[in-house]
Amino acid sequence: MSVDQKIQPVEGLSMHSDAELAARAKAMEAILVEKGLIGSDAIDYMSSVYENEVGPQIGASIVAKAWTDPEFKERLLADATKACQELGFGGMQGEEMTVLENTPDVHHLVVCTLCSCYPWPVLGLPPNWYKYPAYRSRAVRDPRGVMEEFGLDLPDSVEVRVWDSSAELRYWVLPMRPAGTDGWTEEQLAELVTRDALIGVGDVTRPGV
Amino acid sequence: MNERPAPETKPRVDSLVDVLPFSDRIPRHDGEMAFDQAWEIRAFAMTVALHEELGFPWEEFQSELIAAIQRWEAAQTDLAGWSYYERWLAALGELAQGKGWLTGAELDSRTQEILDQPPTTDHHHAVREPVAVVPGA
């Protein structure tokens, strides 16, 4: 089902928009958790089984294009919303996206400090940890510590900047292209780009390095 | 924080999905289950977690899903137009009520409460500067 497509109303049911269905799913979870029938952590665990499948393939392909097409990269960094629309990706009405470029001197990390604002038309659904209070607060207080937990050990010389995504403006990261990938096709490069790298808790490495 | 599911979990969940009615209608991407909306994956995960934690037979959910799809087909002329996860959520609601986990009235009033809350009230402005900068040493 596409984002814009409304679900057909069903006789005897008043649910007919995604907002209403989302509220119903949330209400059901809240009641079941309050009554002690199920824990949120058990639901988080089960959702993690498939959440990678929704995955950041679109974001990865945009990164690969930016690595191989300098003019596109310039447009992406200048206005990510427009550059993504140019490739046919978008769908967040009235909402803005900004892409932050990692360099050897500056590394970007994205968080939503209040909830879980996330550029999902490009990156897919956010991982569970993105919504956890532990990530939301520690990413701001101790970004290097958080990145280390994800296995990213940046040189001390690198400056870390943390950006707060909101409903109005959502960030994602253009990671550095790994060395030794000259002549690779966009498809090959896209394979290397992980969701963690697009959020900034990881970087992109060449296999076997 | 960065936990990955145990490797044996996915085949177990896949086997539950394989026996669902109209499984050819489950939205997929490259053969794997795909979710367009956050609530869809939440409804899916909630159902599987309830099955595993409370131990009710999976067939009970299967039957509710078949019934929910049949209710749709009985009420609509466009038999192909249903959404898998909208019907999924309806089936889960019926199962939960049948089990006495919640009542329809409870669910409706809680849903309305959530709908009445303005979405992300505090987070509707763009934050254009970094919220933290850790300079390089």
TrEMBL record, chain A:
Database matches in InterPro entries: CN_Hdrase_a/SCN_Hdrase_g_sf, CN_Hdrtase_a/SCN_Hdrlase_g, CN_Hdrtase_asu/SCN_Hdrlase_gsu, Nitrile_hydratase_asu
Binding residue positions for Fe(3+): C112, C115, S116, C117
Pfam family, one: NHase_alpha
Keyword annotations: Iron, Lyase, Metal-binding
EC number: 4.2.1.84
Top EC class of this enzyme: lyase
Molecular function GO labels: nitrile hydratase activity; transition metal ion binding
Nitrile hydratase alpha/Thiocyanate hydrolase gamma domain segment(s): 20-202
Recorded superkingdom: Bacteria
Catalytic activity line of the entry: an aliphatic primary amide = an aliphatic nitrile + H2O
The family this protein is said to belong to: Belongs to the nitrile hydratase subunit alpha family.
NCBIfam families on file: nitrile_alph (TIGR01323)
Annotated protein name in UniProt: nitrile hydratase
From TrEMBL, chain B:
InterPro entries hit by this protein: CN_hydtase_beta-like_N, CN_hydtase_beta_C, Elect_transpt_acc-like_dom_sf, Nitrile_Hydratase_acc_put
Coiled coil feature spans: none
Pfam families attached to this UniProt entry: NHase_beta_N
Domain Nitrile hydratase beta subunit-like N-terminal: 26-121
NCBIfam families: nitrile_acc (TIGR03889)
Protein's UniProt name: Nitrile hydratase accessory protein
Annotated organism of origin: Actinomycetospora succinea
Phylogenetic lineage: Bacteria, Bacillati, Actinomycetota, Actinomycetes, Pseudonocardiales
